[in-house]
Amino acid sequence: MDLSWLWPWLACVGLAAITLFTRAFFLIPEREVPLPQWLKRGLKYAPLAALAAVIAPEIVMTNGRLISTVVDARLPALACAVMYFFYKRSIMGTIALGMAVYLPLHIGLGW
Q: Membrane spanning segments where (predicted)?
């Protein structure tokens, strides 16, 4: 009897159980669990760290390798977006300006 179908199902059930446990972990206690101040302060930066971990490889890598040339549309778009963010402190404006610089360079010039 071939049980090769069983491993994917067990993996999915195991991953679902682990996800459910880790997401519901803070709902299990009846009262709030006290956290140290340093941990609360550190958790404020978790979303920013996760976003940087997703975006940074997309900026500096192509096909799993570091970009080997400075003639890449992402670099001027990144520079403009960073300068705009530090000038205006607007997330939507930063995204819009970065894409406004990236798209013409990428599509029109083929960078």
A: 6-30, 42-60, 91-109
In SS3 terms, 22-86 reads as: HHHHHHCCCCCCCCCHHHHHHHCCHHHHHHHHHHHHHHHEECCEECCCCCCCHHHHHHHHHHHHH
Strand partners, 62: 65
98-107, Cβ contacts within 8 angstroms, sequence gap of 24 or more? 101/73, 101/76, 101/77, 102/73, 102/74, 102/76, 102/77, 105/73, 105/76, 105/77, 106/73
User: Mean per-residue pLDDT for 46-57?
Assistant: 88
Condensed to tens digits (0 to 9), the pLDDT of residues 23-45 reads 888 777 788 878 899 999 999 99
Q: Which two tokens stand for residue 81?
A: 């977006």
Structure letter (DSSP) for residue 109: S
What is the band of 96 on the pLDDT scale with cuts at 50, 70, 90?
A: very high
